[in-house]
Design goal:
This protein has 345 residues and is an alpha/beta fold. It contains nine helices and six strands. It has a six-stranded mixed beta sheet with strand order 1-2-4-3-5-6, with helices on both faces. Helix 3 crosses helix 9 and helix 7 crosses helix 9. The longest helix is centred in the N-terminal third of the chain and has 22 residues.
């Protein structure tokens, strides 16, 4: 009796083990992981973020400066436009040049070119990234009066933001986003063709500046275009640059500022993306907010202790050249913006 009871118990035990094993097998005979583990693995794959290269962004800045000052109407401006379009064609799903005519403060009519690249153009959820690619025709804040009618290289003021976005375009091509999320990169033209500081019209109207973004905001490249939010990059390459919360960004898109600044803090870049209010800046993001109705922030180097009282020391001077570009700053901005893009849903 004792032996029979023991064998019966062992039989039931073996049957139980077989039932447990079968329950862990799928119809193809392989072990099936719990659904929760599948979800974690899928999320990990989706959040894999490509590595931003400061060296690549730096080369993109240097390549722009090689054309010479990118002043509207100049040969360098035309050659740079062709090159930028070629870069976006190489990386983006679609690329185009939005040509437009604009009247500058001095009544000169220019043929402007907004250069646009789109990723996942069919996606309804979109993020807008922008920088201006033209450079200032006057070094009107140069310490030497003899230089104040000369055009500037615009290494930091223009080319740095473009360089960061070209590197992000390369990453988006290398590791595409989820098909439900789209990105548009726009290089705005005619941002910096405002009055010379000695001109009596200087400071008289915000509409003298950001002519390319004014045009696009009234005539987007896709009729009825909408984006969840936008990020403008302007002067994002100087050594020891800091980025406070620009005033108009706070007024129109505080939640976007919060999103980006929290990301920077998590990544250890809160010493650059400082949680302090910044000055109000009339820049390309203003028409996008006011005319297009898209919440857009401006990541811009502001320094109230500089000689000009607002921007970094070499703003609108001949000193704004490649020597003022620090790969470490490009890296910080590029990493933060890349992470924001890939984590957005």
């Amino acid at each position: 009796m004792v032996i029979f009871a023991k064998n019966n118990y062992m039989l039931r035990f073996h049957i139980l083990l077989i039932m447990i094993a079968l329950s862990l097998l799928g119809c193809n005979g392989t072990t099936r992981k719990p659904a929760a583990s599948d979800g974690v693995e899928k999320q990990a794959r989706q959040l894999e973020i490509p590595a931003f290269s400061a060296d690549s962004a730096y080369r993109y800045v240097a390549d722009q400066l090689a054309f010479g000052p990118r002043v509207p109407g100049s040969s360098a401006h035309g050659k740079a436009a062709d090159w930028l379009y070629g870069q976006l064609r190489r990386h983006a799903d679609t690329a185009m040049i939005q040509q437009f005519k604009a009247r500058a403060y001095n009544k000169t009519i220019f043929d402007g070119k907004n250069i646009i690249g789109s990723f996942n153009p069919q996606a309804r959820k979109r993020i807008l990234l922008a920088a201006h690619w033209d450079s200032r025709p006057y070094a009107d804040h140069d310490p030497d009066p003899a230089n104040r009618r000369k055009p500037i290289d615009g290494a930091n003021d223009g080319a740095s933001g473009v360089g960061v976005l070209l590197e992000i375009a390369r990453l988006l091509h290398q590791k595409p986003l989820d098909p439900a999320q789209g990105v548009d990169i726009i290089f705005f033209d005619l941002e910096d063709y405002g009055p010379h500081q000695d001109d009596p019209r200087s400071g008289s109207s915000e509409e003298h500046w950001a002519l390319g973004s004014q045009h696009w905001s009234r005539n987007p490249h896709v009729p009825g275009y909408r984006a969840q939010f936008g990020i403008l990059l302007d002067m994002v390459g100087a050594p020891n640059a800091i980025f406070p919360r620009e005033y108009f960004s706070q007024q129109y898109a505080s939640w976007v500022l919060d999103k980006v600044w929290r990301t920077a803090q998590r990544m250890g870049y809160d010493y650059k993306f400082i949680n302090k209010p910044g000055a109000p800046i009339s820049d390309d993001h203003l028409p996008v907010n006011q005319i297009a109705g898209i919440p857009m922030i401006n990541i811009i180097h502001l320094d109230p202790n500089s000689s000009n009282g607002t921007f970094y020391e070499y703003w609108h001077t001949l000193g704004d050249n490649l020597s003022q570009i620090d790969p470490k700053t490009l890296q910080a901005v590029g990493e933060v913006v890349t992470k924001v893009i890939y984590e957005s849903k």
